[in-house]
């Protein structure tokens, strides 16, 4: 069950979207009046409980009330608008429909001092561009996009667009069975993708994008054929600057218009589901940019961000930190997360930069931050927000997973909040990534002196539910592509990379591989151009792709590699005692002994014939994978068709097995 290691499932919220809309209509028809002689009619979708929940940080479906919504009132079609701007003194909607004239369509501030401005504008149509003109604190005039907009203009345009999705989903079968597919006991082989640079119509044209439909036609069958179980999309929430890769977002409820409409994005997710592929989205509740049309200083004051810049400004990213203490901001963020699960049927959410949220001293020197009320460095408000976020997502969508990008030793990231954890389903294993890359970068003859770096991950592995990431962050900013991190000549580089990938796929935990890594991209990732697909004309790259494909299918097909991947009973070291030879072996265990897997890694460029291991159990093993096979660009000369075995102690079921180990090679037996 997807919630077994995360949050206990609670009762789902009741009511369909249609019922909620009907109830909302009943509210304002009963409680509000219309003056049809004015350009903005004083209608409201809010009940008194909604206002209270919004301020308390417990309005989880704020997207059903805030933003712009098409309605028909008194036989007039139009859009209802609602925006929170507590320090505004005047606020109006401007756009194509009124030639961007401020004051022509003023919204009406509620009398309950909620800071919510609202109203119905007859004649406003789906597809119309708009913004809010705000006269804010001390008379400052601002023009802002809608924080709850569901669609935005294509950059460099910055206007929001009135929208209502009309897509009809066809993924009912997937939604019924995804509980099993997304469970922690299921295989999680994740292909991380940046949609704009995976493939382009024109390779090096920054303005050349495939549409969501074209991406579906190309990416979905590729991910399926490669054997990945999930795709993780780097941020698709609307963002103004391509160079931020989506991590500096302004549209928390809108997929980027670079590739099409929200309906097109829904159709793409539906296509993944039709091919039994789960979709994970990157979500960034840690910081936001200072673009003039965005959230920063929304009504002339620090509305969404902390006012104290020792907490409210991120020096690393030159951006601003959400004020997690403020209930209205918590309602905004939790509603954003919930919206993607609710409206877009996503299966998981990878939460970016969790470390920066948890720690008041993140990237700050002494004197640049203030301790919390207990004298510690934890941001208590952010901690409470994260717990609240996870509890809400798992309560309402128990068949999903949330995944933390968290790089420190903060405890219990992926433990239930009922056990004093933060409630995530999984956590990126950054320590494993750094140690593994450091180890594989070494001259193989030097690896014998650094074996502890290789084996250290299992000392703390069971502290969390870990995902092993070889992500975009490892192939940018001068870090070099994966293939050139490997030592040796060309053959050795490819052999080392196959060895690394085999180790990753047989190490306990979920897996994540960034696009291009699967065929040994030879340049760092560049968001301005597509991947170097032309490399697949060369055997070494095409055969590396074959190797990753087979590892994906091996991970999926062999229960021992996934069904106990977060359980202590699923792993056992067999031999760590041959440092000088740098041969390491371990056993992956399934729920049934007959499913056990034996993994032997030869970390040096020396062929080792008749390598002897002592094992227990039944002396029957068959080689099921060899990274040195010819089809992977290996030699194809060192393999084990019938491993030699000798009984050592029949009573205790001990025996020896002799194996032939290829140079810089991995052998897997079952």
Fold and architecture overview:
The protein is an alpha/beta fold and 670 residues long. The chain is built from 16 helices and 28 strands. Among the domains are: 145 residues, Immunoglobulins (Immunoglobulin-like); 100 residues, Immunoglobulin-like (Sandwich). The strands form seven sheets. Strands 9-10-13-16-17-18-19-20 form an eight-stranded parallel beta barrel, surrounded by five helices. It has a five-stranded antiparallel β-sheet with strand order 21-22-23-28-25, covered by helices on one side. Strands 1-2-5-4 form a four-stranded antiparallel β-sheet, with no helix packed on it. Helix 8 packs parallel to helix 10 and helix 15 runs parallel beside helix 16.
Gyration radius (Cα, Å) is 27 Å
Percent in helix: 25-40%
**Number of helices, where a helix is a run of at least 4 consecutive DSSP H or I residues:** 16
List unreliable stretches of 5+ residues. Answer: 1-26
């Amino acid at each position: 069950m997807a919630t077994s290691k995360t949050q206990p499932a609670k009762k789902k919220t009741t009511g369909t979207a249609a019922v909620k809309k009907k109830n909302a209509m009943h509210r304002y028809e009963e409680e509000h009046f219309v003056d049809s002689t004015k350009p903005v009619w004083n209608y409201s979708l809010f009940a008194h409980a909604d206002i209270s929940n919004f301020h308390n940080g417990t309005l989880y479906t704020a997207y059903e009330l805030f933003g712009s919504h098409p309605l028909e009132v008194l036989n007039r079609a139009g859009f209802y608008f609602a925006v929170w701007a507590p320090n505004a003194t005047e606020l109006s909607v401007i756009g194509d429909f009124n030639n961007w004239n401020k004051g022509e369509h003023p919204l009406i501030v509620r009398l309950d001092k909620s800071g919510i401005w609202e109203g119905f504008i007859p004649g406003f149509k789906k597809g119309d561009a708009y913004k809010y003109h705000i006269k804010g604190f001390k008379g400052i005039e601002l023009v802002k996009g809608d924080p709850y907009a569901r669609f935005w203009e294509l950059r460099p345009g910055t206007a929001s667009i009135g929208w209502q999705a009309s897509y009809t989903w066809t993924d009912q079968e997937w939604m019924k069975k995804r509980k099993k597919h997304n469970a922690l006991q299921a295989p999680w082989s994740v292909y991380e993708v940046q949609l704009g640079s995976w493939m382009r119509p024109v390779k090096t044209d920054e303005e050349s994008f495939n549409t969501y439909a074209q991406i579906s036609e190309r990416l979905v069958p590729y991910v399926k054929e490669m054997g990945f179980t999930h795709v993780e999309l780097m941020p698709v929430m609307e963002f103004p600057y391509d160079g931020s890769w989506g991590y500096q977002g302004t549209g928390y409820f809108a997929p980027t218009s670079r590739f099409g409409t929200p309906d097109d994005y829904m159709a793409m997710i539906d296509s993944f589901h039709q091919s039994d592929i789960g979709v994970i989205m990157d979500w960034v509740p840690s910081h936001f940019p200072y673009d003039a049309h965005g959230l920063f200083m929304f009504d002339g004051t620090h509305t969404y961000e902390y006012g104290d810049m020792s907490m409210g400004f991120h020096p690393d990213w030159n951006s601003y930190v959400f004020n997690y203490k403020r209930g209205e901001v918590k309602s905004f963020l939790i509603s954003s997360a919930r919206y993607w699960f609710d409206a877009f049927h996503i299966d998981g959410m990878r939460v970016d930069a969790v470390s920066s949220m948890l720690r008041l001293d993140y990237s700050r020197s002494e004197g640049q931050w203030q301790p919390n009320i207990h004298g510690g460095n934890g941001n208590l408000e952010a901690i409470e927000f994260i717990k609240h976020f996870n509890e809400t997502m798992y309560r309402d969508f128990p068949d999903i997973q949330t995944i933390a990008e968290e790089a420190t030793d903060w405890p219990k990231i992926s433990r239930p909040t009922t056990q004093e954890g933060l409630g995530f389903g999984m956590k990126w294993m950054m320590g494993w990534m750094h140690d593994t890359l450091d180890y594989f970068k070494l001259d193989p003859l030097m690896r014998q002196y650094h074996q502890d770096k290789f084996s250290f991950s299992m000392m703390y592995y069971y502290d969390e539910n870990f995902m092993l990431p070889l992500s975009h962050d490892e192939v940018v900013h001068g870090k070099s592509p994966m293939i050139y991190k490997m030592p040796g000549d060309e053959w050795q580089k490819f052999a080392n990379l196959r060895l690394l990938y085999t180790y990753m796929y047989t190490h306990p935990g979920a897996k994540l591989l960034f696009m291009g890594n699967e065929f040994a991209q030879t340049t760092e990732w560049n968001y301005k151009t597509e991947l170097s697909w032309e490399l697949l004309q060369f055997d070494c790259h095409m055969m590396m792709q074959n190797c990753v494909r087979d590892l994906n299918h091996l991970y999926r097909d062999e229960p021992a590699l996934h069904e106990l991947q977060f359980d202590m009973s699923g792993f056992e070291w067999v031999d760590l005692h041959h440092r000088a030879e740098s041969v390491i072996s371990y056993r992956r265990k399934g729920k049934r002994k007959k499913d056990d897997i034996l993994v032997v890694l030869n970390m040096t460029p020396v062929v080792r014939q008749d390598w002897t291991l002592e094992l227990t159990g039944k002396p029957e093993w068959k080689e099921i994978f060899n990274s040195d096979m010819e089809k992977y660009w290996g030699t194809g000369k060192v393999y084990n068709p019938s491993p030699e075995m000798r009984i050592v102690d029949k009573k205790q079921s001990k025996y020896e097995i002799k194996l032939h180990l290829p140079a810089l090679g991995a052998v897997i037996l079952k």
